[in-house]
Design a protein that fits this description.
The chain is built from 18 helices and 19 strands. It is an alpha/beta fold.
Length: about 500
């Protein structure tokens, strides 16, 4: 019996139905992960190799619900160290079992290696799209953004496009890839869905799926508790220009590479955590090399790991840091996303930044737990905690762009510094590190001759004069224990404009 010829509208409806059916199939796969169903024997074997933590299972279940309710591009937000790669590898393995294709989009060599290693451990055959790597027709691919953008026309669209470190998705090359495959389902993963330029991710994703908080993971033992040492008032940064919203790196290096302003980082390291495996985050390559040389002169094993460092040497430096052969690595933007060295206990922050994402990424490098690691240590010599708050603060993320007037971060909570051990902590009667009493009204702290010294009240007016924004004035008011710091700050700020 001959079927009647389909009219245009009928054909469109059938195509729409087929498209919806594919979406439903993908959602069903994620649903099966959440419920722990064993679809095939090989899938059962794969699951045995990939035991998810309870919060990771919850994240997969939430992603399943997002797809099932019609979302096509959820963004999973989980802190650094929570195991985002484990989650999307688990989903990729299930997709592979249903003969669906997945492309995992990354932008760093370390992330390519990390994703490929996880897929191999899960028994998932895959190809790698990267310079110097032979092309394959495997349905599962780990793709370098820089290489894929040149091979888009020759690369078939996947059923699911996973974007690792998805806060970069608003950048040019990433957007071109996403626009090239408009029909592919998307899954973004990131620890920090915020950008320094204030641009939101609404054009790339349609819903945020929230994972656990840093506090949740710390309480459960999945992240190490953190001790933070920092002065509540940093050196004057008003003379440092900004570029693209952040402190100019060369000017910041010139200002921060002075013991009278940044304090003696070596002495603090020796006093607080001598010999502990540490990463020092610096402003420029010259700054990083200079800091490494100073540590070596002080008798510590130190090296600079830079973008120009050969790959094999970089890998060996990270291994030496984990084994204790190297005690301090100084870095500029190399040890960040995708670098996983759980044995590192200490972050020495020597780079001021206006980027919340960069700050959390740097601190997150030392929060991963390891055998014998009781806590992480952050030595903040540039006051980033005052700009961005505590690593475990509860933050509200959004896909929407921030209006320009709101792009500055909200004032950080009041920070007190112990006059005995120099630990920074949230207001409480005693220092959580050494037990010394804490005054109800914290005094200002400044770095003098490489030490953190208590200021007398006569310096408060000078400090007030160096504040260049309403946010900084509000923070000063909070430090001084004012009942209405916002009202006081607004009065001072607007009075300046009348002079």
């Amino acid at each position: 019996m001959l079927r009647p010829k389909m009219q245009g509208a009928s054909c469109d409806r059938i195509q729409t139905a087929l498209g919806n059916r594919r979406v439903a199939v993908v959602a069903l796969v994620v649903h099966s992960i959440a419920l722990g169903l064993r679809i095939l024997y090989h899938w059962r074997s794969c699951c045995n190799h990939m035991q998810l933590r309870p919060y990771q299972e919850a994240a997969v279940a939430d992603l399943r619900r997002a797809y099932a309710t019609g979302h096509r591009a959820p963004l999973l937000v989980m802190p650094t160290g929570a195991g985002k790669t484990q989650v999307f590898t688990y989903i990729t393995a299930a997709m592979a079992q249903r003969n669906l294709s997945v492309t995992i989009l990354v932008h760093r060599r370390e992330l390519i290696a990390q994703a490929s290693r996880k897929l191999t451990q899960a028994g998932v055959p895959h190809g790698i799209i990267a310079a110097g790597t032979p092309a394959t027709n495997a349905p599962i691919q780990v793709a370098s953004v820089q290489t894929l953008i040149r091979r888009l026309e020759d690369t078939p669209a996947p059923d699911l496009l996973i974007i690792d470190e998805a806060h970069h998705a608003a950048a040019g090359s990433w957007g071109k890839i996403l626009d090239h495959w408009p029909d592919a389902l998307r899954l973004g993963v990131t620890a920090t869905p915020s950008r320094l330029d204030g641009r939101g991710l609404r054009d790339n994703f349609d819903v945020i799926v929230h994972g656990p908080t840093v506090s949740d993971l710390t309480a459960a033992g999945y992240l190490a508790p953190c001790k933070l040492y920092a002065p509540p008032q940093v050196a004057d940064l008003t003379a440092i220009p900004t570029r693209a919203g952040d402190f100019a790196s060369d000017a910041a290096a010139a200002a921060m590479d002075k013991p009278s302003i940044t304090g003696d980082a070596i002495d603090h390291y020796r006093r607080i955590c001598p010999g502990a495996p540490a990463i020092a985050f610096c402003c420029t390559t010259d700054h990083a090399e200079h800091v490494a040389a100073q540590f070596r002169s002080a008798g510590f094993s130190a090296a600079a790991i830079l973008g120009t460092t050969p790959i094999a040497q970089r890998d060996q430096q990270l291994k030496d840091l984990a084994s204790g052969a190297i005690q301090i690595l100084t870095s500029v933007d190399v040890i960040s996303e995708g670098t996983d060295v759980p044995a590192v206990t200490t972050a020495v922050i020597l780079r001021p930044t206006a980027s919340l994402g960069l700050y959390l990424q740097q601190v997150g490098r030392v929060l991963r737990p390891a055998p014998g690691k009781t806590h992480a240590i952050v030595l903040d010599h540039v006051g980033n905690i005052h700009r961005h708050g505590w690593p475990d603060d509860l933050r509200t993320w959004s896909l929407d762009s921030k209006p320009r007037r709101q792009r500055d971060n909200a004032p950080a909570p009041t920070v007190r510094t112990c006059p005995v051990c120099f630990a920074a902590f949230k207001p409480q009667p005693t220092c959580p590190c050494c037990g010394a009493p804490s005054e109800l009204t914290p005094r200002e702290i400044q770095q003098r001759d490489g030490e953190l010294q208590e200021l007398e009240r006569r310096t408060q007016r000078r400090q007030q004069g160096t504040a260049r924004s309403l946010k900084e004035l509000i923070h000063i008011g909070q430090q001084r224990g004012m009942q209405n710091p916002i009202g006081w700050a607004k009065h001072v700020f607007y009075a300046r404009g009348l002079k």
